[in-house]
Every structure is written in C-alpha cells, then in structure tokens.
Specification:
280 residues; alpha+beta; four-stranded antiparallel beta sheet; three-stranded antiparallel beta sheet; 8 helices
C-alpha cells in the first residue's frame, strides 16, 4: 500500500495536528490545507490547492484511513480525521514517529527525538530506536533503516508508506490553488470509508486503492506563489484582490498563526539543544 505525495502529506498533517493541537482536531478543509502547506516542519514545502487536498481525502476515505465528520448542532463545516492508529495499530509514540517521517522524510534518531517532542515522550535515543525497530519488524514494515549519508556518522530512518515523488510531482510550476472553504465547528456525524470502499479488495489491513480511487493529485512547490497578474498569492487563498475574508477563514488564519508561534518556540528549543550538544 503506497500513498502518493499528497496523500502522505495529508495523513502526516492530520496525525501531527491530532497530537499537537487536539483542541482544533478534527480539522476543517481550510485548516488542513494550511497544515499541508506549512513552510516550517515540512520537507519538501508544497503549495497544494483545496481541490488537491480534497481529492486526496476522498482517496484516503476509500482506503478507510480517513473519516469525514459531518456538522451538527448548528455547525457548518465538515471536518476530517485519520484512523491510521486503528488500521495500523499504532500507539501515540509510534504515530508521532510515522507522522514526522511522512512530513520531513528520512531522519536520524536525534532528529526524530527532537521533532517528536511536542507529540510524544521518549526517554532517550534508545527509546526512539526501540519503537522504530518495532515498526520495522512488523509483518508489513512501516519504516526501514537507511545507510549513512556521505560525511555523516549516523544512520537515518524512512517510512515505507509512500513511493518517492516523480519528477512531475516535484515540479515548481504553480497550477492554481483555489480558495479554501471557511472553517467551522466540530462535532457531528462521522462517516468512514465503508460505503465508498464497498467491494474493494483489502490488502494488508489497508484498503487497496485500485483503479477507481481517482487520479493522482499533483502537488505544487511553495516557491511559485505569483498569480497570473503578477501579484503574490498566499498558499491556499485567492491570488490577491481587495475584500474582507469570511469569518471562518479569519479564524483558520488565527489558528495557523498560533501554530506557527508554537513551531518557532519548538525550533528555538531545537537550536538551544544543538548548541548545548556542541558545547556552545
């Protein structure tokens, strides 16, 4: 079972936000687009449109890895949550490692320990390695140990849930992000992938995507942020122009700002730890 690059980013973002900002989870489509397109804690940085994220959500629902939470009690927006923990039987620490690997690619033990601090607690590098070994020794491994890079003395670890991006998926050409939907409240009826996935074969505990899962979405590199009229376009939003943003969109931006503040604090902590390890 292999995610494409957009599905991997969506799943990783959902797991990350579940563990770091549970009060905002499940996520609206707008909040999820912002999470996928963050410029920090993402490698590579992408500029995905609402349509691309929605297509990935539909595909993941077919694979029974995402559920749609429909609004109730006066709420107006559908929200989305992953069920990777249920399908793959992952506890909190294992989910944190898988999420960071999905979002940032191959990493060393030290990088993984530092980057999962806001999601789970590890007593040391040996603790991280033990969890990774457990994920690698499963009947269907979720991670693998990679060799050292030239000039490095530490081995890296990578997830096995997605294939490498194709040249087209790494294209820096922007393809027009649409306006995100307004963020709404939580609560409501939850729908999984049973109806959408009826009759689909199941492989290794995951729904097989098959031929009917929809065409693969193409991510867009984040440095192509200019609209057709030459004005800078914000990721996930309309390409410039006056007008007042909807209240839900303002709320989603407020949440994104708070998340960025937390990420800056986390990065400062990483830098302090690095300086301390170097004797600075």
């Amino acid at each position: 079972m292999q995610f494409d690059v957009v599905e991997a980013r969506v799943v990783g973002s959902l797991v990350e936000k579940e563990l770091t900002t549970p009060q905002q989870y499940p996520l609206t489509l707008n909040a999820l687009v912002l999470a996928c397109n963050q410029s920090s804690n993402r490698e590579p940085v992408l500029l995905l449109s609402e349509t691309e994220v929605q297509r990935a959500l539909e595909s993941l629902k077919t694979m029974k890895l995402v559920r749609f939470v429909f609004p109730s009690h006066g709420r107006s927006a559908v929200r989305y949550r992953h069920v990777l923990d249920e399908v793959a039987r992952l506890d909190e620490r294992q989910r944190s490692l898988v999420a960071v690997l999905l979002l940032r690619g191959p990493q060393t033990l030290g990088e993984l320990r530092t980057r999962t601090e806001r999601m789970a607690s590890f007593s040391g590098l040996g603790d991280v390695e033990s969890e990774l070994r457990h994920l690698a020794d499963r009947s269907e491994p979720l991670v693998e140990r990679l060799g050292r890079r030239p000039g490095q003395k530490e081995e890296r670890f990578a997830h096995l849930l997605a294939s490498a991006p194709t040249p087209d998926e790494q294209s820096p050409m922007a393809q027009g992000a649409t306006t995100p939907a307004a963020a709404g409240g939580s609560g409501g009826a939850e729908v999984g992938g049973d109806a959408a996935g009826a009759g689909r074969p199941v492989f290794g505990g995951f729904g097989n995507r098959g031929e009917g899962a929809g065409s693969p979405a193409t991510p867009v590199a984040a440095d192509a942020r200019m609209s057709s009229d030459g004005r800078a376009a914000i990721a996930g939003g309309p390409p410039g122009g006056p007008g007042r943003a909807p209240a839900g969109e303002v709320e989603a931006l407020r949440v994104a700002v708070e998340e960025l503040r937390r990420e800056v604090a986390s990065m400062r902590q990483e830098l302090d730890e690095l300086n301390a390890s170097l004797g600075g």
